[in-house]
Fold this protein.
Amino acid sequence: MARVLMKGCEAIAEAAVRSGCRFFAGYPITPQNEIPEYFARRLPEVGGNFVQGESEVASVNIAYGAASAGTRAMTSSSSPGIALKSEGISYCAAARIPLVYANISRGGPGVGAIQPAQQDYFQATKASGNGGFQMRVFAPSTVQEAVDMTYKAFDYADEDRNPVLILADGVIGTMMEPVELPEMRSEEEIAKIKAEKKWACVGHELDYENRGWIQPGNWDTNIMQQVNEDAQALYDSWVPEYESYMTEDAEVIIASYGISARISKSVADILRAEGIKVGVVRAITVNPFPYNAFDEINYDNVKAILDVEMSIPAQFVKDVEAGVKGRAPIETCLCSGGNIMSREAVIEAVKKIVEK
């Protein structure tokens, strides 16, 4: 298939449309504005619907309603906007409603800066909303990966009947790269997917046995415990995804995700040319986290693990520490607030480790 040059946000939206998304509700916020803008133009072309809500809170609940009727639905925002959507997302998880959403994250805390950052890691993986629910969270490092992950996210959401998050950032969202777009699902395929959702609120008699984990207003503690036990069984079934890049003989291993991992891989290439053995462990899913990737490391060779992320204080490093289990010292290379990680900063951090 021919490759086309697309901006990250627009590529995410097009991938969603091709996967059968026919409803989007959102609200403007930088740097994800091109996602709703693209949907507003594209969805009417395929018989879908776009709604700009009066707020982030309204938008996520509108998308919740559309998804409850069995339609493949999506919303998106950036950092503080995602925080406002968290209650609606937790409701989707509670009611077992499949919803895909994207966070094109920016600097914080609070409203923060409009430039890229990775300061929403805890929000995405540890506290996406009340009640301790979990989601599959994918972290693309290229626009092509953002396309592929978004396309598959709708299948995962339907399979699990659970929200799925694409955790990108302002770099991935606003950069332009050539991408190969997936095939457009046929209207027959989309109709079949919707028809198979016997739990959907579309006017027919509901299958209450399989309707969802909870019903609003259910205060039976035994039922609620069973709900959470069933949820845990779902979460345990997920398989983490990761990439180990030139780690076999590495003396320094960089641990990272998203755009920082992409930068880290280029650093590994540069330093290998200088004779410094550097490898990269990249988390492709940040939930479930690939703790097992750190069990594959040869700690007899490794001088240190270098956590590289665009967050101060560091967040990703907490999961890295849990994976390393004290088998090697861990250093950090950090930036935040809208500053983008540079290769020069990572190279300097690696060389300091080697000099020690």
In short: The longest helix spans residues 143-160.
